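#structure-requests
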Amino acid sequence: MTAAVEEALRRLEASVSLLESAVTRRLDAERSHSDLETELEIMRDDRARLAAELDGATARLAEMQSVTEEVDHRLGRAIGTVEGVLGRNGERGEG
């Protein structure tokens, strides 16, 4: 082969090698992009699930606060009743 043909073959091989590298990089980038989209979708699903759990926990907390207030009110009335009874009994015992 002549020197010119050999040089052309070397340039062709170098060009093909560069093209292969570019294709590989492009495929890797697309694969990486797909992986990122999958991760993002998983994170969105997790966020939605956590938001629903938070809403449920907030509702349960509000219910528990309401029940606690009612128990506190009833307990206060019961304590007042007991104190009233004890006070009247103490007055009878002193007289």
